[in-house]
Amino acid sequence: MAETGTVPTAAGDDGSQVSLTRSRLVRQEVSQRISGALRVTSGHGNPDITSTPAREAVIQGRNPIAPAPSISSSTTDVEPDSWDEHDNFRPEQIDLANLAPCRKWCIFTCSCFLQFLLNFDMASVAVTLPSIAKDLQASQVLVFTVATGYFLAQTVFQLPFSHTSHAVGRKYAYLTGVTLHIIGAIVAAASKSAQQLIAARIVQGIGAAGMFTMSAIVIVDLMQPRQRASWTAVSQACGALGNICGPLFAALLFKQYTWRSIFYLEFIAAGVLFAVLLGLLPNGRNRSTAPLKVLKSCDWIGMFLFFVSSVTILIPINIGGTVQPWRSPVVIACLLVGMLSLLVLICHQRDLMEHPAFPRQVFTKSVTNVAFFGSFVSGMLLSMIFYNLVLFWEGVRHLPTIKVGIMLLAVTLSYTASAATTGVAIRFWGRIKWATITGTVLAEIGLGLMYLLTETAPVGPLIVITMLAATGCGMYLPAMINTILASTEREWHSHAIAMRTLLYTAGQCMGISIGVAIFTNNFSYQVDKVSHGSQSVAITPQSLMQIIKDLPKDSEIVTLIVMALRWVWGAAAVIGLLAGIPSCVLKCPALPEDDEVLQLEEERRQAQSSRRRKLLPLESLVPVR
């Protein structure tokens, strides 16, 4: 029997003709793929075939027409998921990975500016909530809904943005989010009632969902895993810088103008960001599949169940014990619907969907799940501490808005410095557990000492206490981010990071809601306990935000506020402990070296290629004589 690729001796044999035809087709396909690969990598025509990656693949015994491993350099890194299960090529990852270094840095700078803008929004609005409540005659629950509505929208719409970006491309999903944020800022600046402001903030939150999610995914698409550690840390530090500048800028703008000027400033900043991203981001998208087909394959049922469960759980937490009694039919019905939809969502994602909205592959390891929970708790602690510190400095210590912003620098500056330093240190050493343990210990000590925040305590020790808690939280967050990156496969990094951002913002929303619920219910209990019909303390949590700046320093209400806030600090310490202990106990893998990552990815791709295609023998490439 003649060998494949050689001319048989029997010229008229049918088998020889088939073998000859097959050999020519193979050589033709190999030649086309070699030429195409060289055009992609070098951009020049008719090169020397002996130096091509395809020839090297033949020498190494690999399939020359299979997808080649990623070419690693400072500007080239093809993501493993650039090839789908049907061997359709996804060009967008290459478009992002092959960008010029200066363009990469510009996109990363925009992502840092975006993180700054979103955190600036959160901090500045938090500081001005008492003024907004007084100006719009809004109750405490209603004015805090300005914040919770924003974070709730930002949470539940991250999944739709993440999934649709695979169909329409990163650029258009990114710009859609920025556009919605601009529209929301314009409407918020012109709001005449609390209801209009809440609606505007929800629109802003939807836009922030796209901005926040796409920023994280684009960074993952650009860089290798170990490089993502430092880049993500710098991005988070820029976001924390927004927390620093937010209270100060908000206080200055409020002093010269009104709280509406904050939204006008956001409109200008987001407009500049839109113009820059429009020119920087490539137009790549998954052209191997029609966008409509990709959208139809998305798990819209899972996203809808997540939306229903999130809304119906947060609403009773916000109104229970204040607007409605905990035993009221509305509160009980919402909680039942929320828990039922959450159970249905878990079953749907685990057993019913082939491609669920919450990919099962990122939840396979215990250490990853604990890190996800740690990210959720990080968002909770940040919002619980930050928003209630505004109540403390304005309602208990009677500081003007500008001085409140200065006092909050102790939190935001410590958080920023510790997060950036920890992220860079993890990038340098590759070890994560030390940051997890140190952050947990410092955060618990600081949160426990916040029990000492009273109306007569010296300011210096109070600042040190808040700095200690913020430093611990700042170290804990990058530790959780890098734990997720170290414990998940590289092809699932974008999904894992998108899930982390979703859980982080969900934690922020839950932290505000739980903080408000604890404070208002305990405050109502304390008022009922000491009032006994006395008009001196005849005040409800609904009206507290409107008069908090006008309370006298020796008012009995101030003491009740301090007692209610102590319950908030204690709850934050317990929640932090629940997340910190498992994080410290479980073994976390170290971040792999970049070269090691590339070697592992090449081995994995070779295994996948051999399973997908029948490996052609080396003799089939010998030319016919």
Automatic annotation (TrEMBL):
Subcellular location: Membrane
Topology of the protein relative to the lipid bilayer: Multi-pass membrane protein
Ranges for domain Major facilitator superfamily (MFS) profile: 107-582
Keyword check for Transmembrane helix: yes
Spans through the membrane: 141-160, 172-190, 202-222, 234-255, 261-281, 301-320, 326-346, 367-390, 402-422, 434-453, 459-481, 502-520, 557-581
Gene Ontology molecular-function annotations: transmembrane transporter activity
Keyword Ribonucleoprotein: no
Predominant subcellular localization, coarse grouping: membrane
Region (Disordered): 1-22
Gene3D superfamilies: MFS general substrate transporter like domains, Multidrug resistance protein D
Protein keywords: Membrane, Transmembrane, Transmembrane helix
GO cellular component, one term: plasma membrane
InterPro entries given in the database record: MFS (IPR011701), MFS_dom (IPR020846), MFS_trans_sf (IPR036259)
Protein name, entry field: Major facilitator superfamily (MFS) profile domain-containing protein
Organism: Gnomoniopsis smithogilvyi
